[in-house]
Amino acid sequence: MNKAIFLDRDGVINDNSSKPVNVPEDLIIYEGVGEALSMIQKQGYDLFIVTNQGGIELGHLTPEALDKIHRKLEDDLREYCTFKEISYCPDYYKNSKCRKPKPGMILNLAKKYDINLANSWMIGDMDTDIQAGIAAGCKTAKIGKINSEADINGKNLYEVIKKILS
């Protein structure tokens, strides 16, 4: 069985503090993200993104626009790492199995790629990310405001990855 890092996107990999990322030009990757992902991937972790994208249901962006954003993200990080898959939940209002804090995206990827969830991590900047990781059976790491339920807390992805590897 494989081990994985499940990453939320907005607020973890890229900055969305001034505006939502609805076009590729809005994608600004945080400093140190590439290096952090390279370090963890070299330790045998598969990388996945699991992101709530309720803006699709709300009509702010289309699945095609989101695909373009994710292609840019993969291109921008290609020299550092590769993602096994980017999974997103388009729902906002629906009572959805995929929208975090529900663990649907993580559980589907774990089944598809034979991931040992007990040896894997969910990293996010929202309490819903931590809740999804716990519900899926992962260890969890929270970026930003401290979450007492998370296994690790840190100020950014680089700091969290260093703690996971130590």
From TrEMBL:
It holds the Pfam family Hydrolase_like. It comes from the Bacteria. It is an enzyme of class 3 (hydrolase). The keyword Transcription regulation does not apply. Its main location: cytoplasm. GO terms for molecular function: hydrolase activity. It is found in: Cytoplasm. Its EC number is 3.1.3.-. InterPro entries: HAD-like_sf (IPR036412), HAD-SF_hydro_IIIA (IPR006549), HAD_sf (IPR023214), Heptose_bisP_phosphatase (IPR004446), Histidinol-phos (IPR006543). The keyword Hydrolase applies. Keywords: Carbohydrate metabolism, Cytoplasm, Hydrolase, Metal-binding. Belongs to the gmhB family. This is D,D-heptose 1,7-bisphosphate phosphatase. It comes from Clostridium rhizosphaerae. The lineage of its organism: Bacteria, Bacillati, Bacillota, Clostridia, Eubacteriales.
